[in-house]
Amino acid sequence: MNELVTTRIRATAQRLGLTHLPEQLDAFARRAEEASMGYLDFLDLVLDEEAAHRDERRFRSALRLSKLPHHKTLDDFDFSFQPELDPRRVKDLASLSFVEDKGNAALLGPPGVGKTHIAVALAVAACRAGFSVYFTTLDDMVRKLKSADTIGRLAGTLRTYTRPNVLVVDEIGYQPLDRAEANLVFQLISKRYEKGSIILTSNKSFGEWGQVFGDEVLATAILDRLLHHCEVITINGSSYRLRNRLAALQENEQVA
Ligand code: ADP
Ligand code: MG
Question: How far apart are CA 162 and CA 186, in angstroms?
Fold first, then answer.
């Protein structure tokens, strides 16, 4: 290829913020020659690859910013292990229409049934679809809001949790909160209400949230906003973490 032209293409690509084209220029030209591509097909190839590269970069960056504990997806989830869980309901959630509608999703159930796994899988799908995501446990969020409050920085820290399109609040109910802590959670939930989605997980039924938040009135106010637009999935099953131990126990029982 004419050196002058390739140099100019690289410079123009850089000006336009096209990062993939300069790297792939020689490869693109080779592919076009080998396939005797038409002009339109060639342009289509270049633009399509640039767009795919940009989407992938945006996805990686969203994943990094999300602070998700891992990046498991629904493909990694063995639905046969939870026969009472309807895969269609979970896959419907993964279409993310609740995120588009700024609604919420709640995953309830005992430890080890895959609540965090599914919450993360939905969050990964949201990153892929171009939404911003932030993951936190309830305890971590409360601790950060509290310490921000004591130094007069509550508004700024609240923004960390209100800004993303999707906030994942994991492990509601593991530690009970006092009233001041519950109040901070209420402020956050009110600010996000109908503005952005929350995906939450809890080992407590909503009826037990009064104990979690140390105050029935506050818990009701929080639930009122959370549940107004909320898909609720309850997983009643056994712990995937304990599956090998359970299988061993059952085998022992059979032997005995
Ligand atoms: P929970 O949040 O309900 O306590 P997790 O989602 O953390 O449970 O699941 C515990 C571990 O087991 C994780 O490593 C998760 O990926 C895995 N896991 C849970 N359920 C399944 C499943 N049905 N198929 C595959 N892995 C699962
Ligand atoms: Mg969990």
Answer: 12
